Amino acid sequence: MATASGFDCSKCPGYCCTYPRIVISLKDLTRIARHFEISEDEARRQFTKPYKDQGMDEIVLKHQRDSIYASVCRFFDTAARRCTIYKARPKVCRNYPHGKRCGYYEFLQFERDQQDDPDFIPSA
Predict the structure, then answer these.
(1) What separation, in Å, do the N-terminal and C-terminal C-alpha atoms of the chain show?
(2) Whole-angstrom Cα distance, residue 50 to residue 108?
């Protein structure tokens, strides 16, 4: 699924899903609740947590343990290395990497070429 921008998220082990602050909006919460056919309150309770730091007051997605990156979004399938709610994913995920290039993907491609291993995943 290569895009016009030249990177292919389906070939990536989900580095962006490891960000500790995956901020969601009320619209995102509604979309996720609808995806699971539960109330927004239930979705908030099950899937999010408050994040407060240096004047920031946000709602972020909870994480789960990951064998490669230690911690990853709770909606990330750690075996298949894919998002389990791709169609319902938050806006911040839809917009990533906010440009025509993904630096992590470029780094990953370089490392795979150097290791002569198309499935190589650098670990933390």
Answers:
(1) 26
(2) 32
What number of H helices and E strands is found in the chain? 4, 6
Cα separation, 69 vs 124, whole angstroms: 6
- pLDDT tens for residues 30-63? 999 999 999 999 999 999 999 988 888 899 999 9
Rounded CA-CA distance 51/27 in Å is: 18
Q: Residue with structure tokens 């650098």?
A: 122
Residue with tokens 């996720």: 32
CB contact burial 100-112 (16+ within 10 A = b; e otherwise)? eebebbeebbeeb
Q: Where are the domains of the chain?
A: 20-95
The pTM of the full predicted model, rounded to 2 decimals, is 0.79
